[in-house]
Specification:
Helix 3 crosses helix 4 (126-137) and helix 6 crosses helix 7. 35% of the residues lie in helices and 15% in strands. It contains 12 helices and 8 strands. The longest helix is centred in the middle third of the chain and has 15 residues, at 100-114.
Length: 304
């Protein structure tokens, strides 16, 4: 059975990994200082043992982005994935600010409510920028950091220039267009066969949630994640693993080396035969590297 808060279209999923993860999505009302109202937040929690692993999805994504990776990590580890504020299936309450500051505030209170111990924080694409921002603000929460084809060295979004009426609605509808989303999906994968109908449904299911349109516009108007300065990246304390698809056509490959050069106690590992989403394209190899990284106890055990 699928959770009742998911759109009815969830019944069209066909891939076993997609169906299983969708069936495991839970919700929790989270109190934050952002609004005098609880924010119903959607997440997945599987596995037990060790330092919890917390997965953060990319722009306009959801926990379904980790349908192939999360079960592999959770075989012997407590593993979480959460829908960020303004994204996925988490409530988009009218009047809320949807900005990087609001996102990390909400994420902190989600962590405090349900996890409340240091985590291995894993961020993919925009989720990498969110993970960096969170780590810099709450370093005591993050024991280790993993960046998967991370954003964060190029700030803002070209769409922000269009976010005024009536072009804001046009821009949001542009991103809703199935043909546009299909082109983006195919660009994200090296193996274009993985951009299947099931994959497209996983990437678009949350568009049916209330106020998706308004939250996307609000987040884009906020400017999104600004480019981190090298000085800021140098302040990252936890050991950091940088995983990068060797044929990333969304962000390219230059930023991978820049991150590795700027973040102390970091290591860059290329994921072969993968584009922008190695956690979907090469989930076993991605999981293997994260689990090996998890074994390191102290920062001096992990050197570039």
């Amino acid at each position: 059975m699928f959770p009742s808060f998911l759109p009815p279209t969830v019944g069209q999923l066909t891939e076993p990994a997609s169906i299983a993860l969708a069936q495991s999505i839970q919700s929790q009302a989270i109190a934050t200082p952002l609004i005098n109202q609880l924010i119903t937040t959607t997440y997945v929690k599987q596995g037990d043992g060790g330092t919890p692993i917390l997965l953060i999805h990319g722009f306009d994504g959801s926990v379904l982005e980790f349908r192939r990776l999360l079960p592999l990590l959770a075989e012997n580890n407590e593993t979480w994935a959460v829908d960020l504020l303004g994204f996925g299936f988490t409530d988009r309450i009218p009047g809320l600010q949807f900005s990087p500051i609001a996102i990390k505030t909400h994420l902190y209170h989600f962590w405090k409510t349900l996890i409340n111990q240091p985590v291995i924080l894993v961020g993919a694409s925009m989720g990498g920028a969110a993970a960096i921002d969170f780590t810099l603000t709450y370093p005591e929460v993050v024991e280790k950091l993993v960046l998967i084809d991370s954003a964060g060295l190029k700030g803002g979004s070209p769409l922000s220039k269009l976010m005024f009426p009536p072009l804001d609605a046009f821009a949001a509808n542009f991103l809703r267009n199935p043909q546009v989303r299909d082109r983006i999906s195919r660009t994200a994968y090296k193996n274009k066969l993985l951009a299947s109908l099931d994959s497209q449904l996983c990437a678009a299911l949350h568009l049916e949630m209330p106020n998706w349109h308004q939250a996307l516009i609000a987040f884009t108007k906020s400017g999104g994640y600004s480019a981190f300065k090298l000085k800021q990246l140098a302040e990252i304390v936890p050991p950091t693993l940088i995983l990068w698809g060797d044929t990333d056509q969304i962000l390219g490959t230059v930023d991978a080396k820049k991150f590795a050069g700027a973040i102390p106690h970091s290591q860059l590992i290329w994921i072969q035969d993968s584009g922008h989403v190695p956690h979907l394209e090469q989930p076993h190899i991605t999981a293997q590297h994260i689990l090996e990284f998890r074994k390191f106890v102290r920062s001096q055990d992990f050197s570039p």
